Amino acid sequence: MKPRELVKKTMEFQNNTGAVPIDLWALPWAEMHYPNELMDITKKFPKDFATAPAVYADKPKTSGDQYGIGVYIDEWGCEFTNIQKGVIGEVKTPLILHDDWRDFEKAHIPKELLTFDIDAVNEFCKTTDKFVISDVLARPFERLQFIRGTENIYIDLLSPPKHMVAFIAKMHDFNCALIEKWAKTSVDGIFFMDDWGSQNSLLINPKMWLDIFAPLYKEYIEIAHKYGKKALMHSDGYILSILPHLIDMGLDAINSQIFCMGIDNLKQYKGEITFWGEIDRQHLLPNGTAEEIQHAVESVKQALWSNGGCIAQCEFGPGAKPENIEAVYKAWSN
């Protein structure tokens, strides 16, 4: 079975082959520190996923190196300060300084992203048999943090100023337009994200999440499905309280820290959503033994596999040992 079909069948719980789709997320850190080992792993265990390239008629305005030491300014005008090469930095100086958000127009809505070449995307999709996902993603909660600052946005969410509400609507309209244009291409899946969990709880009250953010994701998923695309989301941390709502919205796959939440807590959702990884990168990937990696993979498959519902994904990032990354894919291939 070709990779594209394998991934789709897995998300539809119709995968009777016994083969689990592979997807390795290798950060630039891994490419810098373990280039030979990374190349060897990807040769032994080729990915079943690909990301469509975006070619812009009007190039988005950025400056600096996103993964380099120093300052990087993204297409929204957010300034990231980075002290470690190979990972993304943090916003130290927010764009919006006033508590009433009257200066919200300082944030640049990057309409340049809408100028990507649909034909180039479609041509790429023709040249691969992998499951292709969209290149640009919506991340409304994190975007609010980037432009306002994390501490400030938590305060603002308690009683959202009218200008903040206006900005969220403007941001959402843009995200929907971008998702819809990508959904009109030949990609197989639409990807969006927001990190919603701390180590043991949601970052905000779940009711607030339902009131403010759930409607945004619901529309993203509806757009993807309208055009026959799968909807895939990433969210780090303990997000157990919002998982049933994402399932009700029709989300096809979630990339999350399942070991943070506990495999036993997720058994109830077996057959309802595809768990797009991952294997514990807090403890196992940096410090685990080959036997512990094997046991972890077996526990995930036993708890969550139902003729699909699992994707063999993990992240090769800071601290992870290459031999443990390889052990993950050896275990999934058994």
Summarize the structure.
It contains 14 helices and eleven strands.
Any chance you could write out the topology, listing elements then pairs?
Elements: H1 3-11, E1 22-26, H2 28-33, H3 35-44, E2 49-51, E3 70-73, E4 79-82, E5 90-91, H4 118-126, E6 131-133, H5 140-148, H6 150-158, H7 162-183, E7 189-193, H8 206-226, E8 230-235, H9 243-249, E9 253-256, H10 258-261, H11 263-266, E10 274-276, H12 284-287, H13 290-304, E11 310-316, H14 322-333
Parallel strand pairs: 1-11, 2-6, 7-8, 8-9, 9-10, 10-11
Antiparallel strand pairs: 3-4, 4-5
Helix and strand string, N-terminal first? HEHHEEEEHEHHHEHEHEHHEHHEH
The CATH class is Alpha Beta
Distance between the termini: 17 Å
Question: On the 0-100 scale, what is the average pLDDT?
Answer: 96
* Uncertain segments: none
Approximate helicity band = 40-55%
CATH structural architecture: Alpha-Beta Barrel
Beta-strand fraction estimate: 5-15%
What is the makeup of the main sheet? 6 strands, parallel
Number of strands: 11
Q: Assign an overall shape.
A: globular
CATH T-level fold name? TIM Barrel
Domain count, please report it. 1
